[in-house]
Design goal:
The complex is a heterodimer of chains A (138) and B (411). Chain A is of the alpha+beta class and 138 residues long. In chain A, 48% of the residues lie in helices and 14% in strands. Chain B has two domains: 131 residues, Aspartate Aminotransferase, domain 1 (Alpha-Beta Complex), CATH 3.90.1150; 255 residues, 3-Layer(aba) Sandwich (Aspartate Aminotransferase, domain 2), CATH 3.40.640. Classes of the chains: A alpha+beta (138), B alpha/beta (411).
Chain lengths: 138, 411
Amino acid sequence: MTINEIQDELIEDFAFYGDWMEKYEYIIQLGKEVPLIDEQYKTDRFIIKGCQSKVWLFPEVVDGKVFFKADSDAVITKGLVSLMVKVLSGHTAKEIAEADLYFIDQIGLKEHLSPTRANGLLSMVKQMKMYAIALQNR
Amino acid sequence: MEIKLKKINIEKVRADFPLLKREVNGKPLVYLDNGATTQKPQVVIDAITNYYSDMNSNVHRGVHYLSQISTDAFEVTRRKVQEFINAKDDFEIIITKGTTDSINLVASCYGKAFVLEGDEIIISAMEHHSNIVPWQMLCEEKGAILRVIPMNENGELDLEAYKNLLSDKTKLVSITYVSNSLGTINPIKEIIDLAHTKNVPVFVDAAQAIQHIAIDVQALDVDFLAFSGHKMYAPTGVGVLYGKKDLLNAMPPYQGGGDMIKDVTFEKTTYNELPFKFEAGTPNIEAGICLAAAIDYINDLGIDNIKAYEDELLEYATTKIKEIPGVRLIGEAAQKSSVLSFVVDGVHPYDIGVLLDKLGIAVRTGHHCAQPVMDQFQIPGTVRASLAVYNTKEDIDTFIAGLTRALNMLL
């Protein structure tokens, strides 16, 4: 599936949730799932510091595609991180660098990408794209 | 003298604050982030409008009518502040941008005049970053040493350790009156008296005290005291530095510019006298003038009545929150003011803040610009509910119900 196909699928999934409670319950559920990253990668080398919650991001290239593993110490952030990974992981560097991430806005979670949220999510998206651009130029 | 307390008419007080009527995320707002900033009463909002529609003009400059009335109004604030904290003279009141500005002013100017290599500045383990970093910068510049009074697990300062830190090398003690992250009320009088036995002046950061506790700078015999307007129902962008006359006179000016000079030639400039020596440039006139309206508002309610009301509310909130399993209060000093800081085992404060916001409840989460405090308690941050005079028991009930609901989702 392309990045946009995955985004559209997520938008469709979220349309089922009637109110914010259900939406957040789903995100929290995603956040509670097994660790998305090996403990060995939860180091300062892979950390993206938000002011409040921490995010770890570990990229690797397999067969010309970029795969991300990421995690957060806050469960809501972690849920959102896993959505982001679902959308961007497993594509070519070029596709990732050029991706327009419209799904967050459409599922009504735009506020989490605001710089004032200080949850590290915005920095993570930037970092994912930077990795992709760096890999693309390699 | 026994203080006679008057009951706060909470319905009337709430009606004074228009913003409290709004909804957030479809829910009636419960505003519990007063430690960050307070909402403004209609009298202050009216004063802002009145300033711009009736007297806007630069102060201390013109001979024209508008400049005179705005200057008069600005100087009324200075005298209101003087009365409010019982300063001896009105020129001991310096109008600044806020507490941070006031601290930086003293760190810079007192530092220039009095601090040398090897000297020591004492602060405490519960300071806000704004009462740490300016002193660190000064110490770095001068080769001076920063000493820190430790605190215990309840968030109370170790006064024995403080006594041992005070020495002939100590040049200044700078301490918060009320901790923004823990709510601890420090025994400021004792801290000042101890420093004075060694002839060391004391700076008190009263940013979290001025809106809750009656302050008499002469009775405290404090040397410097600072606070912000926006945490005491006034607009942002104005604050106060109180300093004893002799100390202020012995300090060089902070910034150069208009208003702070007597004569300027290219060879030499002579400086204006107090308080203008420390007030370079056009101030935030609107906020400065409107601070007077906020002080009037507090005086009408009575600061002791406010304290009694808020103490009762804090006690209620503390009892209620302790009933929730897994909640751990951070900061349980015997003397506390208006701050309920807590963590919940296994839950990140950020997640709690996000869900409370969805319920229309505004709290602060994070390290509250007091990272060393968080490090001591070995936590990434706390959730902080901080109270003002317009909060009610119903606010607390809504907050407790919201917290319970959030924890049900998160745990």
